[in-house]
Each structure stands twice: as C-alpha cells, then as structure tokens.
Design goal:
Order of helices and strands of chain B: HHHHHHHHHHHHHH
Radius of gyration of chain A: 24 Å
Structural class of chain A: alpha/beta
Distance between the termini of chain A: 43 Å
Strand content of chain B: under 5%
Largest sheet of chain A: 6 strands, mixed
GO cellular component, one term (chain B): ATP-binding cassette (ABC) transporter complex
Family (chain B): Belongs to the ABC-2 integral membrane protein family.
Largest sheet of chain B: none
Oligomer: heterodimer
Number of helices of chain B: 14
Shape of chain A: elongated
Number of domains of chain B: 1
InterPro entries (chain B): ABC2_TM, ABC2_TM_bact-type, ABC_2_transport, Nod_factor_ABC_transporter
Order of helices and strands of chain A: EEEHEEHEHHHEHEHEEHEHEEHEH
Subcellular location (chain B): Cell membrane; Membrane
Distance between the termini of chain B: 34 Å
Shape of chain B: elongated
Keywords (chain B): Antibiotic resistance, Cell membrane, Membrane, Transmembrane, Transmembrane helix, Transport
Number of strands of chain A: 14
Radius of gyration of chain B: 21 Å
Largest interface: A-B, 54 and 44 residues
Number of strands of chain B: 0
Strand content of chain A: 15-25%
Strand order of the largest sheet of chain A: 6-7-8-3-9-10
Structural class of chain B: mainly alpha
Chain lengths: 342, 282
C-alpha cells in the first residue's frame, strides 16, 4: 500500500533548467521524511508539485491516497503547507490571518474565531494576536505561518525549510512544535538544508541533488554508507606529525599504509578510519605515549550528515547556499526576504 | 498535543458551486478592505489625484477650450467632469494589479492556492475591494465637482444610472489590472504597467476634447473606445454639455455601448485572469 505521500517519476523543467529529473518518494503514514539538499536541488519544486501549486511535466503523485493531478481540490482539503517565506498577510493581525484561513476552509465565522484563539494561545502569540503581522519578529511570523497551516487538522503536512533564517532559540522552539505535531500522528514532509535538522526531526531522509533523489534511508543508514568511525588526533608539535602518522597507520584498514591517515598540517590534525570503538582510543593514546608524542586532543568521530552529503555528491551541502534560483521557476522572481533574527 | 490536532476541526464539507465561490470571494474582499484601513495613505493618494485633475483642468485649461461653441469656463467644467469620473474609475486597474502582484511576491497566493477555496475568489475578492474604493473616490469627486460648478440636470435616477455605468467600467478595468498583476514580477511594475496604457486610452477619447477636433484617422478610434462610450453616456445622463454628434454606433447609443463594453471586458479578462491564476507559479 502506498504511503501518505507517494510520488513516482516527477519531472519538471523551467525553460532549459531541469528542476526535477525523476523524483520518487514514499512517505508512510505517520512518519517524517526529511528532504535534504542544497538550494536549487529541487526540494521546493517537489513540495510545490505535491501541494498542487505546480503541475509536473511528467510523473504521478498521490497525497493521502488522492491523485494530486486529477483531484487537486480534494488534496488541498487534506494538507497543510507552511512555506519557506512566511505566507501571512502582514497588514492583517495574527488573529485576522487565522480567521481568514479558517473561513477559506469553509468554517463558519464563529468556529474560525474559536480555532484562531486556540492556535494563538498554543503558539504563544496571544499577546500579539491583535497587532498587524508586520510588527512580528521572524520567529513569530514562522509560528503564525505554521499555525495557519494547522487551522484544520490536516493528515499530511508540508514544511518548506521551516527554520531557515531563524536564530537557534527560535529554531529549537519550532522543532518542539514539529515533534509534538508528529507525535499526534501527522505525516510530514520537511525540506531542509540543515543536516542537523533532518537528523533531529526525520525518520527517513531523502538526499536530493540536481532534481534527483540520490540516496535515502534513516540517518544511521546513511551514515553507515559513508563508512564508520574515525579517530582524530591533534598533536602538540608540528614535528610530531610524521611519527604520529606511523603510529596511527597501524590502526587503519591497512591497505594503503601511511595514506590511510589523512593529515592537516596547519592544524596538526591526523584522521584515520577505524573499527573497534571507544576501547581503541585507550590503545592509541598508550601507543602515542610510548613513542613520546604529546597530544592536544583526541576523539572518536562518527560521520555527520555533512560527511554523508559530501561523500554522495562530492560537494558540501552548503555549496550552493548562495546561488539561489534554480529552485524557483526562473520566469518569475520572488522577493527573498531575509528574516531578521528574532 | 491537545490543541494542535485533537480539537482541530476537520475541514467541513465543501460549499462548492456559486454559493461557495461568493462566500470565498467575500472573505477575500473583507481581507483586502481591512488592508486598506491599515494603509490609509493609499486610499488618500487615490483621492488626491482625481481632485487635483479637476482643479488643474478647470482652472488651467478651462477658458481655452471650446465646448459646443462656448468658451465659458463653467461649460468646460460641466463637460470635464464625466471625463474625470471615467478616468478615475479606470485607475482602479493599477490598484488591482499592484495588489495581486504584491500577493504573488509575498507568497500569499501560494497560501491561497493551497487552500480548498474557489479558484476565482482571490481575484474576485481583490476586484470587489477595489470597487469599494472606487465608489468612495467617485463620491468625493462628485462633491468636488459640485463645488467647482458641475451640475446634474436630468434628475437623480438618471444620474444614479451614470454612476452605475462608471462603477461597472471601473470594475471591468480592475480585471485587466488583475491580469497585469499576475503577469509581472513586482507590485511596482504592476502599478506602472497598469497606468501607462491608460493614458492613450483616456486621451484618445471624448473625455477632454471633442473627437471632431482630432485627426480623421484617430477619430473612429476615439469614438469606438469603450471609455468614450461611458463618458458619452454620463454626459447624456447627467445632462452635461459636449455630447459628441457622430454617426458611430457607440456615440448614438452610449448607454448600451458602455454596458456592453464593460460586460465584454469582464467576460474576457476574468476568464484570462482566472486561467492565469490557476497556473500561476510565484
């Protein structure tokens, strides 16, 4: 049985830019899929197709069991969308925004008013409820935008880079809300360029690059693909780098001799892939001590999703962070509002 | 997790049909009217411009133009008002265009398009809110007109008919504005794009001079201009001087011509704008 979100072979081109190049996704009910990738990878375009905002050139998709292309209006009744750019009317108050959304979900005005009040309380916006949204901080706007997506209880939620531009405190607060939401059984598709965020929130991760899903799995599975742990040593003196390398090479896989150990001369840091865990650290320290090498730091490092990304794509996730635009249809500009940190 | 999902109502059954479409449009109209009260300077600027035109035309050009064989400035002011009224209502184009383009650029259109609402409601709500503003402007303009010497000579019912034609024309033009707003990138472009072509439309007409005095090739354009039909209809219904004597059908039957033109513009541009909105991608 297909999941709450299911897509096969989505293709979308804008002029000669291929935004989606055959995206396949499946998100089981009640789980969170993190769509991870740099700007321009096709994350936003995928969300726009699945939320009926954009028709793909090819491919099929269902959301909550409903065909997105054949019955877009029924899909709209089952989804909540919280965008990268807080889509609230800045001249309306928080309360007016939520009431309007409620009424557009066909609630009568009394029900819409009641629901708006509940959400404002829940998102700690009650004090600011009757101020125009343009007076809100970046974090407050995001909360209002998220509240607007939750006016009815949609079984499937889409969040497009929900925490981009937020300061760490507001990001944490938003994560708590998202976790709460998911524990209530909502299926969530979340796009992010923050590896930490995907690690933190998502059950499954799909890594997207150049309009394709290039890897998928749990965070642990993806990390395992990148290889296991590494021992990282920082020696005290530059002269100790060469002898330390000889010592560490004994712990490496052994097939490349000294080359198993990578060296960063200027930081006096040596790294070697190992198997054996924490127990091994004690042995390494003893061996280094035996040849009189003084160390500043030593640690067992597990791969981060950044490592995963680099090993999968050959470039860091942050690479394209500055170039923006592929993700948007190039025919139309959109104001990219940089949110002030709240 | 109580408030997030447990108490959340599921979306009620769709209203659908015309009733649903009207209800959604009114929700969006209300939203746009609230916005206007939060940006009162926009409404004020919308009022200042036509008032300024009345004063400039009355006192600068007033004595130099010949209306129906008379160079009496008072006759010119009576002649002028129908033109100013019509020009003012068509300026609603810029407001509608800028409003829609702003919603597109801010991501609000994405929000609306992800909701299970009637497809045309965002645009209808915008044009209806503009109609409210246009009505307000016309009322203010009528008062200023009365102050400078403009008068209604054919009775209140006919005058109300003229105002109805004016508002219908303004409503029709705001659909052109909606299409412009959906087609450009920024509110700024929508404002200038909404205004620039209005100058030839309003000047190649009977609004400020008698087409009799225009070059012979341009005259038929002026006489068949939808804008001219409404101006001519207003002069007839208000009993103001300067009714164009011409064999052109719209000049002979200006009330019908005005009505038809406005309805045709609404039908064509509403269809195009709603289609564009459905496929809009901000």
């Amino acid at each position: 049985m297909p999941g709450a979100i299911h897509a096969e072979g989505l293709v979308k081109t804008f002029g000669d830019v291929t935004a989606l190049d055959g995206v396949d996704l499946d998100v089981p009910e009640g789980t969170v899929l993190g769509l991870l990738g740099p700007n321009g990878a096709g994350k936003t375009t995928t969300v726009r197709v699945l939320t009926t905002l954009l028709r793909p050139d090819r491919g099929t998709a269902t959301v909550a069991g409903i065909d997105v292309l054949a019955h877009p209006n029924e899909v709209r009744r089952s989804i909540g969308l919280s965008g990268q750019f807080a889509a609230v009317d800045e001249y309306l108050t928080g309360r007016e925004n939520l009431q309007m959304v409620g009424q557009l979900y066909q609630m009568d005005s009394r029900a819409a008013k009641r629901r708006a009040g509940e959400l404002l309380d829940r998102f700690h916006l009650a004090d600011a409820a009757d101020r125009p949204a343009k007076t809100y901080s970046g974090g407050m706007r995001r909360r209002l935008d998220l509240a607007a997506a939750l006016v009815v209880s949609p079984p499937v939620m889409f969040m497009d880079e929900p925490t981009t531009g937020l300061d760490p405190r507001n990001r944490q607060a938003l994560w708590e809300v998202i976790k709460e939401l998911v524990s209530g059984g909502t299926t969530l598709l979340l796009t992010t360029q923050y590896l930490e965020e995907a690690d933190h929130l998502a059950h499954d991760i799909a890594v997207v690059d150049h309009g394709k899903v290039i890897a998928r799995g749990t965070s642990d599975q993806l990390k395992a693909r990148t290889g296991g742990e590494r021992v990282e040593v920082v020696v005290h003196e530059r002269a100790a780098v060469a002898p330390a390398r000889e010592v560490l090479a004994r712990y490496g896989p052994g097939d490349r001799g000294l080359d198993d150990v990578s060296v960063e001369d200027h930081t006096r840091k040596l790294t070697v892939p190992v198997t054996g865990g924490a127990k091994l650290l004690a042995e390494v320290i003893r061996d280094l001590d035996a040849v009189g090498i003084e160390i500043d730091d030593i640690g067992l490092r597990r791969p981060t999703l950044d490592d995963v990304f680099i090993s999968l794509t050959g470039h860091a996730a942050a690479r394209e962070r500055e170039e923006d635009g592929e993700e948007r249809p190039p025919a139309r500009g959109r104001k990219h509002r940089k949110e002030p940190a709240a | 997790m109580t408030t997030l999902t447990d108490t959340a109502p599921h979306a009620p059954a769709p209203r659908g049909g015309i009733a649903g479409s009207i209800a959604d449009s009114l929700v969006v109209t209300k939203r746009n009217l609230i916005r206007m009260t939060r940006i009162p300077e926009m409404v004020v600027f919308g009022l200042v411009q036509p008032v300024m035109f009345v004063i400039l035309f009355s006192f600068v050009f007033g004595g130099s133009l010949n209306i129906g064989g008379s160079t009496d400035p008072k006759a010119y002011r009576e002649f002028l008002m129908a033109g100013i009224f019509a020009q003012t209502v068509t300026f609603a184009t810029a407001g509608a265009g800028a409003g829609i383009a702003d919603d597109m650029s801010k991501g609000l259109v994405d929000r609306f398009r992800s909701l299970p609402m009637a497809r045309g409601a965002v645009l209808t709500g915008r044009t209806l809110a503009d109609l409210v503003q246009t009505t307000l402007t016309v009322v203010v303009l009528a008062v200023v007109g009365l102050l400078v010497g403009w008068r209604i000579h054919e009775g209140i019912p006919k005058a109300l008919g003229a105002f109805a034609l004016l508002l219908l024309l303004g409503y029709a033009f705001s659909w052109i504005g909606a299409l412009i707003g959906l087609s450009v990138r920024t509110p700024e472009a929508a404002t200038s794009g909404g205004l620039i072509w209005l100058f030839p439309v309003t000047f190649v007409s009977n609004a400020f001079v008698d087409p009799e005095q225009m070059a012979s090739w341009i005259r038929p354009i002026a006489e068949w201009n939808p804008f001219s039909a409404t101006v001519q209809a207003c002069r007839e219904l208000f009993g103001n001087p300067g009714v164009v004597q011409s064999d052109a059908w719209p000049m002979q039957h200006p009330v019908w011509a005005s009505l038809l033109w406005s309805l045709v513009i609404i039908a064509v541009f509403r269809t195009l704008a709603v289609r564009k909105y459905r496929s809009a991608s901000a």
